[in-house]
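Course assignment 3, question 2. Fill in each field.
Student: A.L.
Task: Predict the tertiary structure for the chain below.
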Amino acid sequence: MFSPHATPLSSSVNLLLVTRSWFAFGKWTKTHICTFILFLDSWDFMTSMTTNRCYAVAAWCKGKLYVIGGCDGRSVLSCGEMYDPNVNYWRPIPLMNTPRMKSGIAVYDEQIYVFGGVSDLGQTILSSVECYNPSGNRWTFVSPLPTESFDLQCCAVEIPYKSVASVMIDE
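Answer field:
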């Protein structure tokens, strides 16, 4: 079983690299996110998020930073927020269909996919996958993972179909 009330380790930091900056937030974030500006070689705090959260996931999509899900110390969250660096402002996005923390996240074709995770403060491990379309501003379920999973490390990679087919045949 997973406990969201465990003492955080200072070395537990999530990093998201975006062209000229890194965004960092800890496993126990509260509302603070730091950004590392590569060309200045320095860290700075960003405008605080509107919701305290830990064990959330983050992704960069269409020039915006999205922080989704997590736990506020009392309950697992289905909410997320989007940071627009052009106006230095956080705004909420629609709620996911399922609250989740410790999930995986990836961006593909300008849509954000959130995979698995933990719901109910560690009682339920999820196999469901949700897709957020920033243009349509809504969440939909997509095909689930083959098994319940959490603490996923995800990325989207486009592989030509022929390559996938030849790998499958060679096995």
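Instructor remarks: Confidence is low (pLDDT under 50) at residues 1-13, 15-20, 163-171. The two ends are 37 Å apart (CA to CA).
Grade: pending
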